[in-house]
Amino acid sequence: MVTIKDVAKAANVAPSTVSRVIANNPRISEKTKRRVKEVMEELGYYPNLQARSLAAKSTQTIGVIMPNSAYHAFRNPFFPEVLRGISMNAHDSRYGIYLSTGSTEEEIHEEVLSMVNGRRVDGIVMLYSRVNDRTMQYLAEIDFPFTVVGRPSTYEERITYVDNDNIFITNQVTKYLIDLGHKNIAFVGGNLDFVVAHDRLNGYRMALTEAGLPVNEAYLVHERFVNENGRDAIQSLINLEVRPTAFVTQDDLMAYEIISHLDALNIRVPEDISIISFNNLSLSEHSKPPLTSVDIGTFQLGQVATQCLIEKIEHQDTLPKRITIPTKLIERKSCAPKS
Q: What Pfam families has UniProt attached to this entry (predicted)?
């Protein structure tokens, strides 16, 4: 049976160096890492990661917390894509992933307590930022390694997070519609339990105010109303005395649903109503009409959040940071000038 000492002897390094290479220690040069890994492959040496984790008092596992159960989360293509970014970076650093399964806020909190107190994970990536979230507050107060995809509503200066500038980008997409001649613009979707919805709504309001246009509260339709009865929610907008000629929607899934309801009402997109959205899902290129959407860098959000977490796990004195992932408006055919 090949041992670490055999690998060290063949690679002409100390056994401790082999251990550091296995642990992906950043202080080991790439040249040494490459040489040791080549010898490991030649000798057929496969490290016992579980034993190494126990010895180092590490699980080599990252907890990933979703806003609700995996069953519901995976129905939204955002989550598989952000998880792809997480898993790629975790794999490169030899970490496994522990997915949350809680369906309610209470269940999620209890699951995080179990992860932390049971030492099941070395750190946590939260894939959402809820307003006044007690789980996030708990992690911050006990100084457990974690990062957030989204801007925290509290402890912002103490938490490492990765996000888009949601106020700015929503301001810009609303201005995009204003520049097309639209003055009556609705904001549809968004759950105000989450910080991202507040930021996007603020960006929308800001753009209207800057353009000298009134913010019509009747044009604001939140996610709960669309989920309860989407067709009635859209019908209520269409029945207004001055109906909107453009919609800013929370995400592409919401936009698809709205387009379907409008089609049932014999209202055409973009001839009668323009629609712009967020996330730039792969399906948006093939929707009818192809959807104009903001690419928010979903894969990169997950990748960078994981990179920051592993840095915090392995270097406990790492200072909190905010990283803004750039966005890009992908213009397709769901928006048209106001006739």
A: LacI, Peripla_BP_3
Half-sphere exposure of 266 (CA within 13 A, CB side): 0
Q: Does position 53 have pLDDT exceeding 60, yes or no?
A: no
Residue 75, both tokens? 């129905």
pTM: 0.82
**Angle CA(274)–CA(278)–CA(284) in degrees, nearest 5?**
70
- DSSP string across 227-282: HHHHHHHHHHHHTSSS--SEEEESSHHHHHHHHHHHHHTT--TTTT-EEEEES--G
> What's the Rg (C-alpha) of the chain?
24
pLDDT in tens, 197-233: 999 999 999 999 999 999 999 999 988 777 778 788 8
pLDDT computed for residue 70 by the predictor: 58
Q: Before 289, cis peptide (omega within 30)? A: yes
Do the strands 328-330 and 292-295 form a parallel or antiparallel pair, or are they unpaired? Answer: antiparallel
Q: Which residues of 211-234 are buried (b: 16+ CB within 10 A; e: fewer)?
A: eeeeeeeebbbbbebbeeebeebb
Q: Tens of pLDDT along 244-278?
A: 999 999 999 999 999 999 999 999 999 999 999 99
Is residue 148 within a helix (H) or strand (E), and if so which, with residue range? strand 146-149
Q: Which residues neighbour 217 within 8 Å (Cβ) at sequence distance 6 or greater?
A: none
In angstroms, the CA 298 to CA 82 distance is 5
CB 279 within 8 A of CB 254: no
